[in-house]
């Protein structure tokens, strides 16, 4: 028998044990409840457990690897990825190796080929929603797909699935060599692999794989144009091009076939053997290679690839030699002051000696006759400057030179090419609003009251940029509401104004062979026709003359050289 004290202790022990078991059971049930509340999607390539969003009625599946970099050839094609078990899709912070644009620090890892999927709660396999895929910009040298810049909140409320993904940049994405292992454009091939993954799997997330739009700004928009020209697989049927086309940048001109030798030398490894240099660079820590690329001045850009039977070729001819493109619906346009930030931020001493006219001509043409070149430059200077002398207090003429040659004329010529290829559902815009959410001005500490809408300023009105969350002025949020409704209407219907509303009170007409109407997006929406008509007419005549006297860079299809 137990004493009275012993009995009391035993009873107390049992009570404590029961209490402890109850507490543990409660904790376990809480954990199970939390896990069960997280969405899980089952696909043929794996199961993915995401997160419920706290700022809207949607779920997030973050950092899903759609492919991986081959450790034996980090400059080569991506390898498709699949999973066993459940992948915890909760982290969108991965970046491919780069010098990022905000603090100019070297960052990133080769474990970066990830996709982020944002799914409205209304989506299901029985109610599939249209899909919008954003390809980020950054001169093919920097950029990333996370919510820091591409927050989905403004877009998914319109019942579209929004997707972003990373792709390789700089030497890892665009080293172009005449070898089957590194033919070039691996960044584009990463993009294609991501588009394949999305096409094959998005229906399991509640996406309509017959309604896929690819969109981009700047280099992302240039990427979209590449896919319109070169991608034969039916991975998308609509495109949105914001301030960028193939003709925008100096591509196909300066790819350095000796890049591996120069980069290896920069890292104190001297060799004359290309494959030895590549083998060495394959083992180099990525941050060291990015620094070597910066310090050596080696140029790595999109290129025309030499064709190999055992290679995954993509860009196999110069776009100038492609007379027709694939049939897609198109929304295309630019901002009304594209050249503002790039020119206004130049130091006075640099600005006053910089030859903008030579810069824009050298991007596209190769002159053998120097006197004819000088004549062309004088014609351009007389048109844009008149009697003005270039000085730091009057930068508007050079803003126009830079914007006209780099953005406006290339985009308008691309519209003409699309029309001539039979694309008959195309909408043209000009974004001219300047407010507190202007992205480019913000990162360069320029007041939004200066100039018009600069290159990339529109991003803050489409995406919930993390550090702009408190910038909610009524004027700015009106533009957010209008932009996102126009863009998602196009994604859903192929028509940005399928019906009139108080928010969008006018019909946006399509571009035709005979008319170039555009929607100007500002505090008020308005319609115009043939923007910057005088300057664009001058450039049309100028390009006809230049084409007749100068050699454009074109590909020799037999050798793959430019």
Question: How would you describe this structure to a colleague?
Answer:
By secondary structure, the protein is α/β, with parallel strands linked by helices. The chain has two domains: 40-321, Alpha/Beta hydrolase fold, catalytic domain (Rossmann fold); 335-552, Rossmann fold (3-Layer(aba) Sandwich), CATH 3.40.50.1820. 37% of the residues lie in helices and 17% in strands. It has helices at 4-37, 147-150, 153-156, 170-174, 186-201, 219-230, 259-266, 274-283, 286-296, 340-344, 348-353, 356-364, 370-385, 396-420, 439-443, 474-493, 533-549, and strands at residues 40-43, 46-49, 51-52, 58-65, 67-69, 78-80, 86-88, 98-99, 106-107, 114-120, 129-135, 161-165, 207-217, 238-242, 329-335, 365-366, 426-431, 517-521, 525-529, 551-552. The strands form five sheets. Strands 3-4-10-12-11-13-14-15-17-18-19 form an eleven-stranded mixed sheet, with helices on both faces. Strand 5 (67-69) and strand 6 form a beta hairpin. Helix 12 runs parallel beside helix 14. It is globular and about 70 Å long. The termini are far apart.
């Amino acid at each position: 028998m137990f004493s009275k004290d012993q009995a009391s202790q035993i009873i107390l022990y049992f009570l404590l044990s029961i209490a402890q078991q109850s507490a543990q059971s409660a904790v376990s049930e809480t954990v199970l409840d939390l896990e069960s509340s997280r969405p899980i999607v089952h696909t043929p390539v794996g199961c993915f457990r995401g997160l419920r969003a706290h700022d809207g009625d949607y779920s997030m599946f973050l950092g899903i690897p759609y492919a991986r970099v081959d450790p034996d050839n980090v400059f080569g094609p991506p390898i498709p990825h699949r999973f066993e078990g459940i992948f915890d899709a909760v982290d969108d912070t991965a970046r491919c190796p780069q010098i990022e644009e905000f603090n100019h620090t070297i960052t990133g890892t080769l474990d970066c080929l990830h996709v982020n999927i944002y799914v409205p709660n209304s989506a299901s396999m029985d109610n599939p929603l249209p899909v919008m895929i954003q390809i980020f910009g950054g001169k093919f040298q920097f950029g990333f797909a996370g919510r820091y810049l591409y927050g989905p909140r403004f877009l998914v409320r319109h019942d579209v699935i929004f997707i972003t993904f990373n792709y390789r940049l700089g030497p890892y994405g665009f080293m172009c060599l005449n070898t089957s292992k590194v033919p070039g454009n691996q960044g584009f091939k990463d993009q294609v692999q991501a588009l394949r993954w999305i096409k094959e799997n998005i229906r399991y997330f509640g996406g309509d794989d017959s309604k896929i739009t690819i969109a981009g700004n700047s280099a992302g928009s240039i990427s979209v144009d590449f896919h319109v020209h070169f991608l034969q697989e039916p991975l998308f049927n609509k495109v949105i091009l914001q301030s960028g086309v193939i003709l925008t940048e100096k591509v196909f001109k300066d790819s350095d076939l000796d890049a591996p030798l120069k980069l290896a030398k920069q890292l104190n490894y001297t060799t004359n053997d290309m494959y030895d240099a590549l083998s060495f660079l394959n083992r180099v820590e990525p941050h060291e290679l990015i620094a070597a690329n910066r310090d050596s001045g080696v140029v790595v850009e999109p290129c025309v690839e030499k064709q190999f039977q055992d290679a995954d070729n993509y860009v196999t001819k110069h776009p100038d030699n492609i007379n027709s493109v694939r049939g897609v619906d198109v929304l295309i346009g630019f901002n009304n002051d594209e050249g503002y930030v790039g020119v206004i931020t130049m130091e006075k001493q640099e600005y006053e000696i910089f030859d903008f006219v030579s810069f824009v001509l050298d991007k596209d043409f190769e002159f053998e006759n120097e006197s004819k070149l000088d004549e062309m430059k004088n014609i351009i200077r007389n048109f844009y400057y008149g009697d003005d002398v270039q000085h730091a207090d009057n930068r508007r003429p050079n803003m126009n030179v830079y914007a006209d040659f780099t953005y406006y004329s290339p985009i308008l010529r691309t519209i003409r090419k699309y029309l001539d290829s039979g694309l008959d559902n195309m909408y043209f815009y000009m974004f001219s609003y300047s407010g507190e959410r202007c992205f480019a001005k913000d990162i360069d500490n320029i007041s939004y009251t200066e100039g018009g809408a600069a290159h990339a300023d529109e991003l803050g009105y489409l995406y919930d940029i993390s550090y702009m969350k408190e910038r909610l002025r009524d004027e700015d949020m009106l533009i957010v509401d209008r932009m996102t409704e126009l863009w998602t209407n196009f994604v859903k219907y192929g028509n940005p104004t399928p019906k009139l509303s108080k928010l969008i009170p006018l019909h946006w007409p399509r571009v035709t062979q005979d008319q170039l109407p555009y929607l100007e997006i500002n505090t008020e929406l308005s319609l115009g026709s043939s923007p910057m008509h005088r300057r664009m007419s001058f450039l049309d005549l100028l390009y006809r003359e230049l084409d007749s006297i100068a050699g454009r860079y074109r590909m020799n299809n037999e050798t793959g050289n430019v």
